[in-house]
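Per reviewer request, we include the raw input and output of the structure prediction for the construct analysed in the revised manuscript.
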Amino acid sequence: MSTAQVAGEAVDKGIGTKEDWSAETGRARTWFESLRDRICAEFEAIEREAGSDASFTYTPWKREHHGEPVPDGGGGVQGLMKGKVFEKVGVNVSTVGGTFSPEFAKTMNGADPENPAFTATGISLVAHMANPHAPAVHMNTRFLTTRKAWFGGGGDLNPPIPYAEDTADFHASYKAACDAHDPAYYDKFKAWADDYFYIPHRKVHRGVGGIFYDHLECADDAGFEANFAFTRDVGDAFLNVYPALVRRRMNMDWTQDDKLKQLIWRGRYAEFNLVYDRGTLFGLKTGGNIDAILMSLPPEAVWE
């Protein structure tokens, strides 16, 4: 088989001919960290508007295996704030690499027991709000490489007390980001979010949805540039809409019944993240920091 035929077969399988993605991983990391900085600054500004001096604390961590540091395994920074408006919000960034366990490699795009190497860089955010009328939220974007390279991410709104106006504005922001790149993206990724953020044992969705995408593969440099541009717009779409929703709801009066609704809803949220969330599993399987992985859990919840 000729080199051209081998290359063509690789592209057909989504593997591509490019093998060294280190520069692209670095660019993605820089972007995710800059997005973290802008989001955290905006959230701290909201706290100041509420008369709070709460700020993020940042805790660096290194990737470990069975409690021992992994040489050249990378790590990340956990950002955490507990304030007047944001009862608990985590904004984490990480860049890790190494090899998957043979069994876990079988579940990962482009990896296998004979070739389990990977890199992953990304940002992950979860905000739990003090006011039950203010929606909680999840946002994540990431770039991974195995034998393949791809982007994934999205965001979903999780209001204990939904408002149609907030839902519409959240979806409109993501739709605009999707439409700028592919008119088919929004419907496809919205449906993916609806399917993914579902709690089968409760037969309910986790929230009011958003978008979710994964395995947006980069067979070559052009594919990377296109998918990276889309992922940047996904991050900007979150920053453009979510702080506005918080400001809309953060000063509303609420009752004990409202708070109870929030705490019960948080229990459902915790169930999803501990039982079904792929990001939680990925972090646990790759030696991530436990506190950073579980920062998505709410500060208080009830089960009734």
